[in-house]
Amino acid sequence: MYRFNRQLVLADGTVFKGYAFGANVESVGEVVFNTGMTGYQETLSDPSYNGQIITFTYPLIGNYGINRNDFETITPSIKGMVVREVCPKPSNFRAEFTLDQVLQELGIPGIAGVDTRALTRKIREFGTIKGIITDLEQDPATLVARLQQTVLPTDQITQTSTKSAYPAAGRGYRVVLVDLGMKSGILRELSQRWCDVVVVPHNASAAQIMRLSPDGVMLTNGPGDPTDVPETIATIKELIPQVPIFGICMGHQLISLAAGAKTYKLKFGHRGANHPVKNLLTGKVDITSQNHGYAVDIASLSNTDLELTHISENDQTCEGVRHKLYPVFSVQYHPEAAPGPHDANYLFNQFLANMQEFISRKSRKQA
Predict the structure, then answer these.
(1) Second label for 222, Cα 20 to 30 Å away, from 204, 279, 320, 337?
(2) Can you give the residue ranges of the Carbamoyl-phosphate synthase small subunit N-terminal domain (predicted)?
(3) 161 assigned to a ligand binding site
(4) Does 48 count as an annotated binding residue?
(5) Angle between the 230-239 and 250-258 helix axes, to the nearest 10 degrees?
């Protein structure tokens, strides 16, 4: 299945040679790694990976194929895929396509035969780095010079968010879902709970959202630096006293910024389906799916009305907060991804309980 040789060149001059699969195109992006043993289809289609070249630490990728039901978005926007070995003949009753076929269709290049362990150790030691996937004929020194002059985009949320509002599903609690780069799993969890979901763009104003008469507002995951969308932060700040809010990943970071906390870029981020997180309210540890390059500064929470609710067992970073005065809470990880598989489902139920209490309180005031 390999059609031509390929190389991954990093901005520090490191070169990894391998074999091509996927699309025959050149691609530049931020090189990151994912530690999940499964879930490569969900990962490649997760909008939070917009602009990134994903290295999979698990050595065999593509072994159960690709199917039409497990995409997180219909327009994946990763820049490339790096694997030790790619499976050309998947074995699974749900498989409809090979990974190679899908990446070709999507215009995404892949490189196999890479020492992904060495690449991951480099990222862990020195942090995420710019890289380029291209054919072996290109001069590495010239590519390094290009990379060092390349400025990666900062408008990832604008790229991944819907451009206009639309009704999604359900007839229960009215949830306005602010799309920052939404995974379909979030919509699926809300739909399973019979929520009446309306999806709006990331730059929808608080007035536009409140005109939809929400019982709750959901802030989704999304790519990039949370400080790149100040208009969304301002909207959330205005919404916090008015309506229950649940934030996931990027939504968590934006709630924290809106409340006055700070965020910072992690050295190499958290990406995988096996990250232990401790719930400080219950003492229990959940196995979580994560994908983020930024985190909320725990020390900065002391100057806000937020309190820490969840913490990473790996590096003690912030994994969840809740508001002391209003029914607003968030987590850094992805409860809809079900890695546990159901460790974090209670968060959606908590959101429903907050909306029910909000409706009851509003009814008592009107009575």
Answers:
(1) 279
(2) 4-134
(3) no
(4) yes
(5) 70
> How large is the average pLDDT for residues 47-72?
96
Return phi, psi of residue 41, to 5°: -70, -45
Ligand-binding annotation for 224, yes or no, is: yes
The pair of structure tokens assigned to 6 is 């390929």
Strands of the chain (E only): list them: 5-10, 15-22, 27-34, 52-56, 60-61, 80-82, 85-86, 109-112, 129-135, 166-169, 174-178, 196-200, 216-219, 245-248, 263-279, 285-296, 306-312, 318-323, 328-331
Per-residue model confidence as pLDDT tens digits over 227-283: 999 999 999 999 999 999 999 999 999 999 999 999 999 999 999 988 999 999 999
Asked if residues 131 and 12 have their Cβ atoms less than 8 Å apart, the reply is: no
Q: What is the mean pLDDT of residues 83-102?
A: 96
215-234 burial: b if 16+ Cβ within 10 Å, else e: bbbbbbbbbbbbebbeebbe
Sequence-distant (6+) residues with CB within 8 A of 196 are 167, 169, 170, 171, 172, 173, 174, 175
Domain assignments of the chain as residue spans, ordered by start: 6-152, 156-366
Share of the chain above pLDDT 70, in %: 98
**Band of the pLDDT at 362, cuts 50, 70, 90?**
confident
**Catalytic annotation on 252?**
no
- Is 342 annotated in the active site? no
Backbone dihedral angles phi then psi of residue 188, each to the nearest 5 degrees: -65, -45
pLDDT digits (tens, 9 = 90+) for 164-198: 999 997 789 999 999 999 999 999 999 999 999 99
- CATH class for the domain made up of 6-152: alpha beta
Instruction: Confirm if 109 and 28 have CB atoms less than 8 A apart.
Output: no
DSSP conformation class of 97 = B
Q: Tokens for 60?
A: 């065999």
291 is in an annotated binding site: yes
How many other CB atoms sit within 10 Å of the CB of residue 267? 12
Domain 156-366 fold: Rossmann fold (3.40.50)
Q: What is the average pLDDT score of the chain? A: 95
Residue from 87, 195, 249, 318 carrying the catalytic annotation:
249
Q: Is 340 annotated as a binding residue?
A: no
